[in-house]
Amino acid sequence: MKTTPESTSLPTRREFLATTTAASVGFALGASAFVSTASAQTSAPISRKKRYALVGVGSRSGMFREAVLRKYAEYSEMVGFCDVNAGRLKLAQDHARNLAGVEVPIYPAKDFDRMVRETKPDVIIITTKDSEHDRYLVRGMELGCDVMTEKPMTTDEKKCAAILKTQARTGRKCTVCFNYRYSPYRSQVKELLMNGVIGDVLSVDFTWLLDTMHGADYFRRWHANKANSGGLMVHKATHHFDLMNWWLSAVPVEVAAVGKREFYTPQMAKRLGLQSHHERCHTCPEKSKCTFRLDLAGNANLKRMYLDQEHHDGYFRDRCVFRPDIDIEDTMNVIVKYSTGATMMYSLNAFNGWEGYRLAFNGTKGRLEHTVQEKVTVFGDGNTPGAVAKEGVITRVYPLRAPAYNVELWQSGSGGHAGGDNLMLDDLFLPNPPADKFLRAADQRSGAYSILTGVAANHSMRTGKPVKIADLVKKIGLPDYPPMPTNTDPVPMPPAAS
To answer: Would you kindly state where each structural domain of the chain is located, as residue ranges?
Structure first.
């Protein structure tokens, strides 16, 4: 069965009525729309190019640099790079020169204010480590710029509150980038839920699996300390929690969680036959027999970006995944209650035999199951992040007392995150992006709710008690979400049991 948008509008959820425009309800967007939308632009002349400055020029910044310098060069220009690492700044500058023939000024992190003063950007793009996002979001808005950040928006509730207050005070635009929303497979799930295929959602089972390539990578980088990343509950799961908020058109209200680190430990190193944990792979005396080894020297991208630049700041990209100073969990289980009354059972594990997720929505008219298997990758190694394995996606509907069926999948686009990256970039960088009934663009409100589930989970894991979101941050405001079936809609009587 192939799903297509319905021609009639769906019932509006009262609490989201004020934030949902008529255009978002009535605009029809079918599967054919999941291609590059640059051709949808009007012919109206652009008065001037939008000016962008970028803070943080590591691997995470590459997609944004390419977008401004090449794909959207007709509408945008890069006016400044800023980073703590002088070597990577020079690499970024050289790359801009070779790619686009432009000379982008570079600034050390301590000179961020000077960069803004001298280059006068309209928008600051932030792709630093997670714990530094708030610094540049807040200061950027205070200096009169719009801001755009990679997920997660920040790492704890205090920083989140500061960002929200600054945005409210300055009125600047704060964009949070959630490429998973834009993947055709995930947008199709949203379409099915919006169309009421399974009625209104009562509960969700959501399991996310990281394999021992991608999963292990979080334990060798700066992410392995919660002070930097908020742990996997924030850094990684913000993707998943945002998807669920958006899929349900709801926000979390209470969270309970348990977590532990039991695989990436010194004890596991010995169980795997190693003598001990060590500082890093590059100098490890046991690297010849450890299959968790990351060979920085053997990968041109990782060598150029990290091994050759570590003398500038002392950052090791290849630290041992079994070292004792890691303080993030590798096994997490979470229960979430939502504003609609729906509940979710969520788990995240970082040492599995395959990468991807299994998801099931249980509704008043049936059950929707969605499974995605992703390809193995190490971030920054030159492979496409979030790529989906061939024939690795299944979406299946189980109506009440009726035969189940597989949904004919919308075609995946090219690029990272199963085509989501390119569609998100169109939304971010085209001056007049096409209307989107799925409302996939996100601001500080969605950014806040996406991290606060994980922040609350961190508190709950520490205290053993459930945590209410309203006790962490107040006055967030409701994100702009599409309308969904509600718990007051009529439900057809299912067929008699045979």
So the answer is: 14-179, 180-264+326-416+444-471, 271-313
CATH architecture group of domain 14-179: 3-Layer(aba) Sandwich (3.40)
Quick: pLDDT tens for 146-203.
999 999 999 999 999 999 999 999 999 999 999 999 999 999 999 999 999 999 999 9
Asked whether the beta carbons of 444 and 174 are under 8 A apart, the reply is yes
CATH topology of domain 180-264+326-416+444-471: Dihydrodipicolinate Reductase; domain 2 (3.30.360)
Question: 328-352, pLDDT tens digit by residue?
Answer: 999 999 999 999 999 999 999 999 9
Whether pTM exceeds 0.85: yes
Strand partners, 254: 337, 468
- What tokens does 222 get? 């700066």
Task: Give the tens place of pLDDT for each residue, 203-232.
Answer: 999 999 999 999 999 999 999 999 999 999
